[in-house]
Structure formats: structure tokens, C-alpha cells
């Protein structure tokens, strides 16, 4: 439950040495005359992000549900009731409002809205109207994702994105949402992380449908490109007709790459290729169909070209001697700056639609959070039109193939009784959101060698 301001102050002014790793015990002392806050532009959006299947619970009519039942998730876990947000959204939005947020990103569950091909469920639509109204009532501007990895069962049964009817069905669903919910949504995300979906579902096969193959990858890539383009057009057609200012984009996972061997030409060539293929290809194929660029930033890879090993011909990920999250993902705040600079080439407003780390004891999250936000500040100063930051995530939730093992929440959830407990980083983020900036005092969360 939200704590008093005094308790919060206690939490964010703890001895830095206990906050993250031992580096922090040697913190630089703040010089007495530098007390200014690094202010963000007025109207900057501060939010958190979630996705329906990961938090709502009881989502039984989709491909992921079957996938879980078949035992594909770590230790046989299933999403089950998740955070029960389907019923507890008011309570959760109170936590988001108390955080000082003025925005929130969530997704609508297509499987609930259209449980059978062409049959739209008015009850489900009404539910999401209430959810969005609950956000607006609390001053949280909604960013809504139409498709965040889970497919209606009927759609999956016909071949999912490989099915020739896929694009027209997604366009129809998009238009329906614009018609029904257009008055309540400020920012629309058609598709979440198309390249991650391709990799997980058709590359490594750890997500449904778990069908590997290069031809499938290419076919689904082209369908997702067409699905986004069609959805963009339909949303605009409907929303423009109804007089709403539609702003539509995607949430794109962007990876920063670094050559493992600094002087290796091959490593460098590969990272340029990987950057182009993974980070930019989708934008290139959907040029002209974005009103903003949405960036999900989590990954930094050090790549080594190694032609002898077929399974990882071009690609090895090295994290040794680097700080990593509970899931072994390198924490690299500099990459946030690089990503934003690189995305500015499209000349559109940029939103950080997701960013966060798994940290069950919250040890590394305060520092990661402050340093990521600091890099966004620097990117804005360098001229990038960044308009908002949505931390992943408000709550611990169902982390796909990792089940409940990845704890990404600013708020911990006890899944036995659905109790919510804000972590220390909740109050650190609250400080940032309420100040619309980073107070110099938060420098204590950064380590040596970090530029302020
Ligand atoms: C996805 C989320 C996921 C998060 C952490 C993003 O790739 O959009 O659904 O939970 O990363 O893995």
C-alpha cells in the first residue's frame, strides 16, 4: 500500500551501500552548490506499462493459454489468475496515480473482444471502456496496445499470422476498437515488438506456435508489416471521421550492439547488419505509417563473429564482467541514450514504451531506473523529441516462458493472496514523476564513473 511521504523519504535516502552493489559505498559526494533538478519538458508523460495476458488473469480463449497447459513454461507454470487485474484495475490504477504518473500503457485482449471470428463481445468492450475511464478519472493518459503477443484461439487455429486472412481480421478488429473506444485513447500501439515475436515464436520456438523455419519467419514478417499498415490506416480513417486526433505507432524492441573484439572488422560488420535488420527493418517497411516511434529498451549484446559454430554462426552474447539483471540481461543505461539518438533519424516524437529490469530483491532497480531516466534526459538535451517514459512494469506479472520467475514490478505481488507491496524503487520513481525530473539527491543511486 502507498506509504506516507516520511516513509518514502526514509526509503529513498537509505545508505547507498545497501542499495545496489558495493560500488555504491564509494559514492561521490554531491557538491553543495549543485542542487538543481534535471527537469524534463512540461507535459512529459510518466507512466508504467503492462500487457493484458500478463496481468489480467483468467484469459482462457487464446493461444498462450493452450501453450501453458501443454507445459511449455518454466517449471510447468501457467498464467492462471495472474495479478487478477481484470477485477482489481481500480486498485492498481490508484497505485499508478499515487506514483505521480500522468500516463499508463496497457493492452486490450483481442481474444476477449472477438472470441469468435467476426463476433464482437459487447460485455468485453464495455469492460475496457470502464478500465479506460478509470484511468482518465485518475489523470492517467491511456496508451493502448491492440496486440501484445496473445492471439484469439480461433485465429491461432487457422494458422495465426501465417493465415492468409490474418491481415484483414486484424484490420477489422482495429477499426472496431477505434469505433468503440476512440474517445478514450490518446496513443495507439498496433503491435508490440514484432521482431521479438518472430524470434521467439518462429526462430527459437519457445512461444506459440513454436514452429521454426526461415520461410515462416519471412512470411510472418511480411504479414506483420501489412497488419500494421492496414491497422494504421483503419484507425486513422475511423478516428479522423469521428474527430479524434489519432496518434498511432508500434512498440519496437531496440537492441544496442557492441563488437566483442573492439578491433575485429567481422564483429563490427555483424553488429551493423544486426542493427539494421533487427532495429530498423520494420520501420523501413512501414515508413509513413507511424505518428511516433515507440521504443522498448532492454537489451545490450556484445557480439562475436564465430563461423565455426553453426548454431550461433554470427552471434554470441557476452555478459561477463557486466552488471546483469535476475534474468542475466546486461544492464546498460548508455544504450538508452544511443537508442534514442538512433531513433531520432525518423524525425518523429519518441516514447520509451517499455524499460525495466527483473530484480526480485529490488537491489539493482533503483540505480538502473535513475540511470536510464538520466540517459533520456541527456538525449532530450541532445535534441531528441522524447515525449514519455513507461516503466516496465507497475506490478510483478506473468513473464511469458519464464512464468512468475521474472520480477519486474515497482510493486511486488504476492500471488497467493494478491497483496500488493510497493518496493523501494516505487518511491524512487515517484520522486522522479512528481518532480518531473531527477533531483540531484538521487545521484546517490548511481555509481562511480557515471556522468551526471
Ligand atoms: C515485452 C513484455 C515483457 C518484457 C520483459 C517486453 O519484451 O513487451 O511483455 O514482459 O519485455 O521481458
UniProtKB/TrEMBL annotation:
Keyword Hydrolase: yes
Pfam families referenced in this protein's UniProt entry, alphabetically: Glyco_hydro_1 (PF00232)
Keywords associated with the record: Glycosidase, Hydrolase
Gene3D superfamilies, per database record: Glycosidases
Domain of life: Bacteria
GO molecular function: beta-glucosidase activity
GO BP annotations listed: carbohydrate metabolic process
Active site: 354
Keyword Hydrolase appears in the UniProt entry: yes
Family named by the database record: Belongs to the glycosyl hydrolase 1 family.
Protein name, entry field: Glycoside hydrolase family 1 protein
Species assigned in the record: Candidatus Uhrbacteria bacterium CG_4_10_14_0_8_um_filter_58_22
Amino acid at each position: 500500500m502507498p506509504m506516507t511521504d516520511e516513509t518514502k523519504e526514509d526509503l529513498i535516502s537509505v545508505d547507498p551501500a545497501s542499495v545496489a552493489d558495493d560500488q555504491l559505498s564509494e559514492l561521490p559526494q554531491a557538491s553543495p552548490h549543485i542542487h538543481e533538478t534535471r527537469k524534463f519538458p512540461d507535459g512529459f508523460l510518466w507512466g508504467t506499462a503492462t500487457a493484458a495476458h500478463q496481468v489480467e488473469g483468467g484469459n482462457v480463449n487464446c493461444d498462450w493459454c493452450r501453450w501453458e497447459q501443454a507445459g511449455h513454461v518454466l517449471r510447468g507454470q501457467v498464467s492462471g489468475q495472474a495479478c487478477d487485474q481484470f477485477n482489481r484495475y481500480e486498485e492498481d490504477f490508484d497505485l499508478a496515480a499515487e506514483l505521480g504518473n500522468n500516463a499508463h500503457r496497457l493492452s486490450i485482449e483481442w481474444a476477449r473482444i472477438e472470441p469468435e471470428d467476426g463476433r464482437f463481445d459487447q460485455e468485453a468492450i464495455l469492460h475496457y471502456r470502464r478500465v479506460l475511464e478509470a484511468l482518465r478519472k485518475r489523470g492517467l493518459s491511456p496508451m493502448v496496445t491492440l496486440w501484445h503477443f496473445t492471439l484469439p484461439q480461433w485465429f491461432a487455429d487457422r494458422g495465426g499470422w501465417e493465415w492468409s486472412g490474418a491481415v484483414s481480421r486484424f484490420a477489422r478488429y482495429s477499426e472496431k476498437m477505434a469505433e468503440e473506444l476512440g474517445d478514450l485513447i490518446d496513443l495507439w500501439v498496433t503491435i508490440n515488438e514484432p521482431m521479438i515475436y518472430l524470434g521467439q515464436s518462429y526462430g527459437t520456438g519457445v512461444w506459440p506456435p513454436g514452429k521454426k523455419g526461415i520461410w515462416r519467419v519471412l512470411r510472418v514478417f511480411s504479414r506483420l508489416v501489412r497488419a500494421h499498415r492496414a491497422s494504421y490506416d483503419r484507425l486513422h480513417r475511423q478516428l479522423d471521421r469521428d474527430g479524434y486526433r489519432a496518434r498511432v505507432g508500434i512498440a519496437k524492441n531496440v537492441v544496442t550492439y557492441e563488437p566483442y573484439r573492439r578491433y575485429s572488422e567481422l564483429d563490427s560488420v555483424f553488429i551493423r547488419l544486426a542493427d539494421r535488420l533487427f532495429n530498423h527493418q520494420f520501420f523501413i517497411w512501414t515508413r509513413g505509417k507511424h505518428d511516433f516511434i515507440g521504443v522498448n529498451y532492454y537489451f545490450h549484446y556484445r557480439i562475436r563473429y564465430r563461423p565455426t559454430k553453426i548454431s550461433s554462426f554470427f552471434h554470441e552474447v557476452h555478459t561477463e564482467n557486466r552488471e546483469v539483471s535476475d534474468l542475466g540481461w546486461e544492464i546498460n543505461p548508455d544504450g538508452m541514450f544511443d537508442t534514442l539518438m538512433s531513433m531520432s533519424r525518423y524525425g518523429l516524437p519518441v516514447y520509451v514504451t517499455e524499460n525495466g529490469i527483473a530484480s526480485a530483491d529490488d537491489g539493482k532497480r533503483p540505480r538502473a531506473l535513475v540511470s536510464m531516466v538520466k540517459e533520456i534526459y541527456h538525449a532530450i538535451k541532445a535534441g531528441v523529441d522524447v515525449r514519455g517514459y513507461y516503466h516496465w512494469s507497475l506490478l510483478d506479472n506473468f513473464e511469458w516462458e519464464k512464468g512468475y520467475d521474472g520480477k519486474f514490478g515497482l510493486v511486488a505481488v504476492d500471488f497467493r493472496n494478491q497483496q500488493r507491496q510497493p518496493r523501494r524503487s516505487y518511491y524512487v520513481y515517484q520522486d522522479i514523476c512528481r518532480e518531473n525530473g531527477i533531483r540531484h539527491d538521487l545521484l546517490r543511486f548511481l555509481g562511480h564513473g557515471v556522468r551526471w
